[in-house]
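Researcher: Let's continue the batch. This sequence belongs to DUF1631 family protein, and it's 710 residues. Same format as the previous ones, please.
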Amino acid sequence: MTRLENTKIVEITGGASASQRQLVREMQDLFSRHLSDWLAQVRTPVLVALYEQAANATSSREQEDAIALCRIFESTWSAFPAVFMRHVRNGVAHARADERAFGDLYLFDDAEMENLRLANAVSGPLREAAGEELHALDERIGGLLGLPRAQHAFGNPMGPTRLSHALIEGCKVVDAPPAVRDAFARVVANRLAVDLPTVYQEINAELAARGVGIERTRERFIRKHPTLGSGAPASIERHRNAAIALHDALKVNERKRLATGKPSEMSKICSYLHDALAEPAQGTDAAPLAVMLNSAPLSTASAPIRTLLSLADEVFAGLLETPDLPPIGRRLLAALKRPLMILALSDEALFATATHPAIRLIDAVVDASRRCNASVDGGDKVSARLNAIVQQLHADTAPCSAHFVEALASLEAFTAARDRAEAAASASLLATIERNARDATALKSATDLLRPLCAGPLPEEMRNFLLHAWIPIIQAAIVSGARERELGILHGMAARLVRTVDPAQTDAERAEIRAGLRALIEEVTLQLEASDLPAEVWAVPLAALLPVQIRALQGRPIETRCSDLPSLMPAMQAPGQHPQRIGVFEVTEVPDQSPDDITDCLAREALAAAGNLAPGDWVVFARDDGAPEVMQRLVWTSKAGDHHVFTSFESAQATSVSSSALAAMLLKNRARLVARSTRFDALASAAMTRQPVLDAPAIPVPLRPRAVKA
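Model: Same format as before. Here are the C-alpha cells for DUF1631 family protein:
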C-alpha cells in the first residue's frame, strides 16, 4: 500500500446557508450542461487530430501506436461521456474514502496511486489553461461555501481537481493497456484545456449577474492606507528606470562642476540635510521639505536633487500614515528619515530595487515596532534594540547601503532570537489551549451521550451524580482514546442506574433490579476509584444516590424534577471570561459567539476573513474596560481552522478566540485585521506617479541593469 496525504475532495458543507448551497448546485447543473454539449461536439475534432498525429509520425512504431489509439478512441468513445459526467457530478469515491477512520491520511494500492498521479498530471495543465477565469470562479464558489481561502482551489466542485479524477475514472471503460488509457486521457484533457476557459467564463458571468462578486473578505476588515489608494501603478518599471536616469543626470552635473573647479554640490547638500533633519530623533517635527527647498543650498539645487528629495519626503509622509503604526514606530521612522534622504541622493538603486537593504530595513522596523509593549513606552527589549539600531544610522554622517545592510542583519538576528524565545514561552500556553480544546470537545461528546438519559424527570440525587461524577468519567475516557465499545459500557452502566429509579417499573422488574443493585454499585465504584477523579468529588453523590434507589425499588414515591442539562453545568460549558495566567502570558478567553445573521453577506465575509488567518497575521483588539487597543500576532490555529490564539510576547498578553467570535468582533468593530503587505516599495511607486518629471517622456530610460550597492 502507498500513503498519500491531503487528496480528499471537499464537499458542499461548512458555513454555507441552504440558499448558498442551492446556488452552487445550480451552477454545477449549468456546468454539467456545458460539458455535455462539449462532449457531443468534441469527438470529431479529437479524432481528426489523432489521425493527423498518426500521419505525421516519424517512425513506424509511433504510427502503429497512434493508429491503435484512433481505433480505441472510435470504439470506446460512446461509453466514455456517461461515466465521465457521472463522476463530474458526484465526485470520485476513493478520493474521500474512509475519512472518519483516517482523517487527512488515505491508503491506496499501487493501481490507485498511478491513477492519482495521472490525475495530478492532467489537472495541472487544465488549471494553467483556465487561468484568471478559474481563479475568479474558485473565489466565488469558495465564498459561497464559506471555505477557508486555502481550500478555495480544491473545494470548487467544478474545478480541475474533480475534472481530472472524473477523466481518469471515465478512461477505465477503455479496454486497453494502461499506457493507452493514459494517452486517451491526455488527448481528451488537451482538448478540454482549450475550451474550459470559455465554460468558466459563462459560469462567472452567471454568478456575477446574480450578485456574487469575487470575495475580498480580508480587505474589508483592514484599515486602509490613505496614500496607496487601490494599488500600485501599472508602470512601476518605467518609473524605476526614470529614477535611475535622475542619478545619471546628477553624475553628469557633478562631473561638470568638478571639471570647472566648483565644489561638489552633493556634499554641501548632504551636510545641510544632516543638520536640518536632526530634530525628529527627539520626537519633534522638523521643517517641512517645502520650507527647506526654499532655503539655501536647496533653493539653488538642480532639478534631479529636488525631485529625489521630494520622492523620499513623500514616501516618509506615507509611512507615517501607515494604519495601526505604534507610536514608537513613528519615532523610529522620523529618525530614519535623515539617513535615507541622504542615501537617496547617492544610491541610484534605492528607488529602483524593491529588495534594497534600506527598504527592507524600514519595512522590518515597521513590523518589529508592532511587537513593542505600548504600555511601557520603550522599556521592553524590542524597543531598546530598535532604538539602538536606528540611532546609530541617524547619527551616521555619510550613510551608505553597507550601513543599512549591517543594521538589517542585526535586526533580523535579534527578531529571530525573539521568535525563538516567544516560541519557547508559548509552548506551555499552546499545550494548555490544545488540552482545554480537547477537554471541551470530550465534555461536549460526554454530555451529548448522556443527554437523553437526563432529559426526563429524575431525582435530584441521580442528576447530581450523573453531572458531577459520570459525565467526567466519560469525558476522561474520550480524552484517553476510548473506543465505541468502551463508551457503550459506560453509557450502559448509566442507563442501568437511571432504570433503578424509574417509577414505571413493575414489581417483578423491581425485584430483578434489586437483586443486581449491589453488583451494579460495586461496578460503578470500581470505575470511579480507577479514574483520576478525587474521592471527595464522587463519594458524596454516590452515597446520596443509594437511599434514593432503595426507596424507588421498594415502590415508595420519590421527588423528581425535569430540567435542562446545560443549565446545570454553566461552569463546564461557558469559557472563562476573565484573564488567567498561563506561563508568562495573561490569557483572555473570548466567549464564543456568532454573527447575528449568518446568512448576511457581510457576516459571511467576516467568517471567511476570520477563518483565513495564517500564523504571523496581526489583529488589533479593543478592550471592554476602556484600556488602549492591543495588537497581537496569531501564533496558533486549530486543525479545523475554527479557533485561534494571539499573543504579544513583550506585553505578556494572549487572546484565545474562536473564528465565529472573531467574526462577530470584526463586525462590531471590536477587532480589525492589520495589513500584511510591506509599505515602502508600494509608497515609492505611488509617489513616482505623482512626480511630473518622472512621467515626462523626455527623461531617458536606461536599459542596462543596475545592482544594489552593498
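Researcher: Any comment?
Model: The longest strand covers residues 630-637.
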